[in-house]
Structures are given as structure tokens and as C-alpha cells.
Amino acid sequence: MKPVDKASITALAQRNTSERALATVNFVLAGASGSGNPTIAVCFVLYVRQGGFMLAIPNSTELQESIVKLGGESSVEPMLFAVEVDIETLRGDGAGQHEVVLVDLP
């Protein structure tokens, strides 16, 4: 996996407009859940705006904390919003409602 940069996020968001499935970004959480093994969280790119972008991420405290830490010493922290969304498979079959967190990253 390679690090995410503005150009790759923009390309993923533009792909969203031409395809049914949302583009994904994988976050690796080193040693998550105390197992010592890395956990991969699949996150979805929703849109890009000037100065930032928005992701839909699994509702995981560890993932949210990791994303907030990405900002380092920045004075602007990501905004987090927990919401219920309808999920469907790539074939378009409904998979019910699930809680995700929308993350607005500066």
C-alpha cells in the first residue's frame, strides 16, 4: 500500500462519479485490538473540496483516534459525524442499515 496524497484522493473521488461502487482507501492500524497484528480498515472516498476531503469510515474508536492523530500538530482537527446509511453489495443487493462515521479532513 502506498501513502495517500491529494492527487490520488482527487482521482478516486472523480472515479466515484463514473462508477456505482465508491472508491476505497485502506488504513492500516498497527497492533489494533491488542493482538499485535495489523488491522486494515476499508474507508470510502465521498468527495474532495478545496482544502480537504470527506471519507466514510467504519465506526471504530481506534480508527477515529488514528485519523485524528494524522493531523499531528495541526490546529484544525477532522470533523467526525456518526450516521446510519443504507449499505448494498456490488451487485446492488441491500445489506441493511449500518452506522458509519463521516470524516471531514482538512
Task: Give the SSE layout.
Layout: H1 6-16, E1 24-29, E2 39-49, E3 52-58, H2 61-70, E4 79-88, E5 94-105
Antiparallel strand pairs: 1-2, 2-3, 3-5, 4-5
Q: What does this entry show, briefly?
A:
The protein has helices at 6-16, 61-70; strands at 24-29, 39-49, 52-58, 79-88, 94-105. The protein is an alpha+beta fold and 106 residues long. Strands 1-2-3-5-4 form a five-stranded antiparallel beta sheet.
**Low-pLDDT regions:** none
Order of strands in the sheet with the most strands? 1-2-3-5-4
Structural domains: how many? 1
Shape: globular
Percentage of residues in DSSP E strands:
35-45%
Radius of gyration: 14 Å
Sketch the topology as an H/E string, one letter per element: HEEEHEE
Number of strands: 5
- What is the number of helices? 2
Instruction: Kindly report the average pLDDT value.
Output: 83
| SSE class | alpha+beta
**Helix content, binned percent:** 10-25%
Main pleated sheet: 5 strands, antiparallel
Distance between the termini: 22 Å
